[in-house]
Amino acid sequence: MKFELPKLPYDLNQLEPVITAKTFEFHYGKHHQAYVNNLNNLVPGTKFENATLETIIKESDGGIFNNAAQIWNHTFYFMSFAPNAGGEPKGKLAELITRDFGSFAEFKDKFAKAATTLFGSGWAWLVINKEGKLEITQESNAGCPLKHGLKPLLTIDVWEHAYYIDYQNRRPDYIAAFWNIVDWKVIEERL
Ligand code: MN
Questions:
Q1: What radius of gyration, in Å, describes the C-alpha atoms of the chain?
Q2: How far apart are the CA of 171 and the centre of ligand 1, in A?
C-alpha cells in the first residue's frame, strides 16, 4: 500500500494567526510528508506490505511504528481544524464533557495542562477509554491512543516543530490559541 499526504480541507494561510502558512509549509509540507515518505520506504518486504495504517500502528514497533503513527496523528490533528471555528462543543459531546470533567472550562484547563506539562516531544489527547468515559492522556514522541485500544477524539501536537516558527518557546501561548481553530463539529462526528 502506498501512503499519501492527505489533502487538507482549508488553505494553508486560513488558520492564521493561530497556525501560519509558514508553519504549515514545514509541519505539513516537510515533516508530515517525511513520515509518509519514510513509511513508504520502510514497508516493502515486510509483513505490512498490504496493511492499513491502523493495523500497522497496532502491530508494529520501531521505525515502522514511529512513522505510521506520526502519519496518522498528524492527519488527525490537521483534520480537527477550520477557519472561524472554536467556541464550544454542542450536543452529545458537550454532555459527555460536562459528565466527565464537570464543565467545558474544567476540561480545557485539564487538557491544556496535559499539553503544557508533557516533557519533550509528544501529543496530548482527549480519548474515550474502554469504560466509555472521556479521558485526557499524554503520549511521548509518536505515541498513539489506537495502540492502547482507546478512541481518540482530539489531539494537540506539542513537538516543537508544531509551534516554534510562530511562538518560539512559548508553548502555553500556542495551546491557548489552539482553541480558536478547533472545529467541534468534526470532533463530535468522531464519537
Ligand atoms: Mn508534528
A1: 16
A2: 13
- For the chain, the structural domain boundaries read 21-78, 91-189
pTM for this model (two decimals):
0.97
- Nearest-10 crossing angle of helices 171-178, 104-117: 150
**Which class does domain 21-78 fall in?**
mainly alpha
Per-residue pLDDT tens over the stretch 153-180: 999 999 999 999 999 999 999 999 999 9
Q: What is the C-alpha to C-alpha distance for residues 82 and 10, in angstroms, rounded to an integer? A: 7
CATH class of the domain defined by 91-189: alpha beta
The CA distances from residue 62 to 65, 73, 102, 136, 158, in Å, are 5, 16, 39, 25, 21
pLDDT in tens, 37-87: 999 999 999 999 999 999 999 999 999 999 999 999 999 999 999 999 999
Question: 30 CA to middle of ligand 1, Å?
Answer: 10
Residue 74 Cα to ligand 1 midpoint, Å, equals 6
